[in-house]
Amino acid sequence: MSEASAQSVLSAHGFPSGLSDLPLPELEHLAQELDAVIAQKRKANRKPSEGELLLLINTTVLSAEERSRYWVLAEKLEADQLTDEEHQEYMELVDKDENLRNNRFKLLIELAQLRNIALPKLMENLGLAPVFNG
Questions:
Q1: In the chain, which ranges are continuous DSSP H helix?
Q2: CA gyration radius, the chain
Q3: 3-state secondary structure of 2
Q4: pTM of the model
Q5: Which has the closest alpha carbon to 110: 42, 40, 39, 55?
Q6: Residue/partner pairs of 3-7 with CB below 8 Å, 24 or more apart
Q7: Which long-range contacts (CB under 8 A, 24 or more apart) does 85-90 make?
Q8: Distance of CA 99 to CAs 93, 94, 105, 127, Å?
Q9: Do the Cβ atoms of 56 and 106 come closer than 8 Å?
Q10: Around Cβ 57, how many Cβ atoms within 10 Å?
Q11: Cystine design at 81: which of 8, 29, 76, 118 (Cβ 3.0–4.6 Å)?
């Protein structure tokens, strides 16, 4: 069924009565399209499960290779031995790490709310130590 015919049926005849005039194949096609829209909206509104949140939390860290490179560059920075290119690479890793940490924090808050416990208690339960940047 074309969008134009669907719109004319819905606007000219009203939702329930206009649909009853459609041939069965067009009604079935419309029903399939509506099912797809409903499924998409349900998926968009669905909250992640506890297991999904834990999996997402575990992906919010730099890879081992990135972490290793980060520390090499951090040591060179402290020794004032970074090239301009290395400095750019270091800043990109710092930004990525910061974004990952922020995302992890949001996911931890969501998990704490799902479990109905305070964030510090959740972190204790998961064996996570607070990170201090001071």
A1: 3-13, 15-19, 24-45, 50-58, 64-78, 84-115, 119-126
A2: 26
A3: coil
A4: 0.60
A5: 55
A6: 6/30
A7: none
A8: 10, 9, 10, 22
A9: no
A10: 19
A11: 76
What is the rounded CA–CA span in Å between residue 38 and residue 59? 30
b/e code 75-96 from CB counts within 10 Å (16+ = b): eeeeeeebeeeeeeebeebeee
Tell me the one-letter amino acid at 80.
D
Ordered per-residue pLDDT tens for the chain, 134 residues: 555 554 544 444 455 567 777 788 887 888 888 888 888 877 776 678 888 999 999 899 999 999 999 999 999 999 999 999 999 999 999 999 999 999 999 999 999 999 999 999 999 998 887 766 54
Alpha carbon distance 25, 34 (integer Å): 14
Single-letter amino acid, residue 133: N
Q: Among residues 51, 60, 54, 56, which one has the least CA distance to residue 101?
A: 60
User: Quick one: tokens of 45?
Assistant: 């509104």
Tokens of 107: 């996911």
Distance CA 81, CA 78 (A): 8
